[in-house]
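pipeline/complex-builder :: batch 7 item 3
reading input block
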Amino acid sequence: MGSPMNLLRPLNDAPLISFVLINWNYGRFVRRAIASIRNQDYKNFECLVIDNASSDDSRQVIQEEIKDDHRFTPLLLDENLNQMGALLHVLPRLQGQLVNICDADDILFENFASYHSQVHLGAQYPIGFSSSGVLECDEDGQILTGRFDPFEGFPRLKTKLILRKDAARISELADSDYESLGDAVLQVPETQMSWVWSPGTSNVYRKEMLELCRPAEAPRIYVAAVDNYYAPFINAMASSALITKPLSGYRFHGSNRFATSPSMLGLRAMTRSGRERSINRRRDIITTLCSDPARYLEVLGERFWSVIDLPSSVDCVDRVESFESERIQKDIEKNFAKLHATFGDDLRDRLSERMNRETVARLWKRCWKILDEHNSTIKQT
Amino acid sequence: MHQKNERENILSVVGGHHIAAVDLFVGGKSLGELSSGALKPPLVSFVVICWNYAQFVSQTIASIKDQDYPNFECIVINNGSTDDSGAVIENAVADDKRFTIAHLPENLGQLGAAFWALDRIKGNFVVFVDADDILFPAFASTHLQVHLAVPRSVAMSTSNIVEINAAGELLTRRYDLFGKDGGADTKGLAPENKVVRLSTISDEQYRLLGSQTSTRSPYKGGWFWAPGTSNMFRRTVLDMCRIKSHSNIFMRSSDSHFNHLCHAIGGTAIIDHHLAGYRQHGSNYFSKTETIAGVRQGSPNFAAISRDTTRETLECLLERTAFFNWILAGRYWAVIDQLPNVHPELLPGYFGENATKDLFTRHIQKICDEFGYKISVRQICARFDRTSAKKIFRDGLAPENHPLAKRQFRLNSMKKVLSFFKRKKQTS
């Protein structure tokens, strides 16, 4: 073990991780998922087990598996808020500085939390989240592939963790583990415009980033995958790190909504409907940016406009097509006063880069009309 | 792995044989322990297809029993043999519980038997074994290690062979076409401590394996696999390659169908290391002689049969146009041109054959439904002469859709005329 000076005491100093395990009708898998969290070698965690109004035997299984472990809190919802809905529902009450959203059909390795926590503490630059490798497996747990295909798909600059003697050390990691972890870490710059992370469960976010990037106008029942929205957005805000070692199992099975087959070279791994849904939900990033432009401009500076292009870039959708869509038009129209107050007439140029000329002209006219009417009613009163 | 010996002491008894329990490792730690027992080593399915190879099949079965990766099942299909294969197989399998024997009343052909087996196997990785070939003990473990450690996952892996004669004597050290045109292949495996490892492959062997392995992208066609028993397929990809047919008899080799299509779907990992013996004994389906650089392989009528069989493979793609166009992510038409496995200059000839035209006629409606009439007309015109193209649409489409196609043909020819004038203007 390293010098006692920089070794964190397991329960007092090491960051608290909040696991949010979200289950909907995965009674046949959820026992494994809970067990894999209980068996973490990292001691400082809490786990919220949310049941999204399952109709199978999930609730019973959850109660049985948690027993009287005080680190686990079951939360049985009466309606299915879906994954994103459930997370946003519980986000304010999470205690941890680090948050992992765990799918009920996945499995974490026993060193998952300690490795992720160490990367957050030891990275050369602060990161918004960390993403580790997965093994794709089948319903029975048999390994299918060694990785999720887009993960680590682009050559990246290697980054070491900071020197062992200078780092705040997680006591569960031996010196040799620290060194080998250091060899496995890659930094993803905040300018990354495509998907390079592992899916779902394999990501650990800083809680304040989840709050900073919280989707605006989120409905209570929010049908969306957390990683789909948060991963590229948080990376654009604060960059991320990849741990190029498998630290969890990602289950591929018949009732998986997104996957068509294990990920493979040159093959599309998502279903058609899954992709449409994900494109649509990722545009929530634009909605969120438009809802509070001043605040995000402060964080992002000039990069505000490249982040607003992030959804179309990640999904390989034409930027113009994305901005011409009805919902984005509505978003801009609705937040026009704020946007104009932040960017002034520069806004029109920025929009012109992203829409056809006629659309901008129409939008501009419409928005000003609404704004003028609004202003005049204020004056009158 | 350096701690190999300590780990191999867990023994279990399967069918009277002592077999080391298998575990996988990540960074030197047991996967079973890391995952609280939730993740397991994959099951490999061997499918031995035997048609009148009584004199060789017992050696084949013995070579499967000797695999150093014990987590497998094996289904031995006696494919309507008329010799004493049945008795020989029963004898060779004896009481090994990992084996199942199926005696089929008629010969379904090798591919037919392979499809028959697909409904009955449980493994996620599949090896079709010719009943005259011999696997080396590390066949399954090496292929599996490559599948789990290639930089990007692939649909299938292939390894080299040694050629042997009927008596089992060595003829050549390697198959001549193996890994041909490998210039653009991606070399190597992922770093050794970042991947799932098998306990039977030491660090040193892993590094050596890395230097022998490369990944060929699905964009690149041609025949570069070793023949016979040299491939391990992903089950999910094989399931995509089924052929719809009124009959369950397919009198052709399984690799002529699976290799081209599986590779076009998800690429191949090439392991340049011999892991099997391929037997040349005069009654082979394909070869006349061992491979020597410069000597043409294949019997003369093989080439003619091969064209018909590639159409069968092509039909697999056309039948499920919507599915394949989606998962191939923009590569659909490239794969159409890749599957016939002929030189690009000979493609017009291939598409010019009546059987090919009939094939597209049968499926043109599905193509139009998926791509729309504009793109469909353009793509068909790129492959067939104009008269044939028109005929394909006329004969294959429902009558109410004829005008839609005709309109595109007219627009198409107008465009051609326009571009002709444009070019003329530019030159003058």
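note: Chain A touches chain B through 40 residues (CB under 8 Å).
queue -> next item
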